[in-house]
Amino acid sequence: LLRDALTSWTEILDYEEARVEQKNVEMQMKTNGLAVSQQISGDQDSGGCLVGGVLVVHAKRLYDLVLDGNSQIRGASVKLLGKLLRQDLINPNDVMPFLLALQGDVGV
């Protein structure tokens, strides 16, 4: 159940990222007559960070799951943390000790 939850959160972030990228492409196509302030305000999406924000609040628990005894949970949590890192939602310095601890893990 925990692995499925982690996978679902990752899929939600993937969907959110694709939606934001599509919105950015549409904005680039429409920017011909807009002022810079209008372009910047159009880029701010109030719902875009909601899922990531919830995960950031519980980041410490995600860090602990990286060291879980079940290799499937470790793998799913590493994938989710990778997505959060790629979207700049968590600090790489906070994650680094846990990722370094996994270097010797051959089960993932």
Global mean pLDDT? 77
> Helical percent range?
over 70%
List low-confidence stretches. Answer: 39-48
Q: What's the total count of β strands?
A: 0
Distance between the termini: 18 Å
Succession of helices and strands = HHHHHH
Fraction in beta strands:
under 5%
SS content category: mainly alpha
Principal-axes geometry comes out as: elongated
Q: Major sheet, described briefly?
A: none
Radius of gyration: 17 Å
Helical run tally: 6
Overview of this protein structure:
Helices cover 72% and strands 0% of the residues. It is an all-alpha fold. Helix 1 (2-30) packs parallel to helix 5. It is elongated. The model is unreliable at 39-48 (pLDDT under 50).
Spell out the key features of this protein:
108 residues, mainly alpha, 6 helices, 72% helix
Indicate the topology.
Blueprint: H1 2-30, H2 36-43, H3 50-57, H4 59-65, H5 71-86, H6 92-101
Compact overview of the structure:
With about 110 residues, the protein is an all-alpha fold. The protein has helices at about 1-30, 35-45, 50-55, 60-65, 70-85, 90-100. It contains six helices and no strands.
